[in-house]
Amino acid sequence: xxxxxxxxxxxxxxxxxxxxADTALRLFxxxxxxxxxIRDVAAExxxxxxxxxxHFASKEALVFEQDGDFEQRLMRTVTDRExxxxxxxxxxREIQAMVRHCTAxxxxxxxxxxxxxxxxREYEESMRLRHAESLATALVADPDLPQSATACRTxxxxxxxxxxxxxxxxxxxxxxxxxxxxxxxxxxxx
Length: 190
Known about the structure:
The structure is a single chain. Helices cover 76% and strands 0% of the residues. The chain is mainly α. Helix 5 (67-79) packs antiparallel against helix 6, helix 6 (87-102) packs parallel to helix 9 and helix 7 crosses helix 8 (118-141). The chain has 10 helices and no strands.
């Protein structure tokens, strides 16, 4: 399989985006989310404010810089799975990988910051709803899945909630095991 290569321009854009996100997170954790403005982040990252906004739509988006990647991964889990590969185990593996990423060492301060900020909590909630809608769209479009649009939307919400609940649990693996047993049963019942 050939791995697509990216050009110099794309690599520079990706590096700039990452530099902005890393700078923002460092400043937010050092000074507090509410104490840091967009101009502070841009100045520290040595970019113009317009450059920052060309990469991130809002201050909140700086905290959730992998949002788009997570959304695409969920959709690809549905669209790129092997023919006849069961859906729910594939989604479970992806959610498990995402939970591992978000519960790795060093993430506690980030989630504490999110919990302490109303703006970040609201942004995260809207992000989860968007992810659920994108996942539902991929499920509905899959011709191999006979479930109704309502069933697909419901399961998509359950999967996104599984991520949130497991990430917050004392034992994320046990939480995922329990939650996905219920999701599997609900999917089969649909």
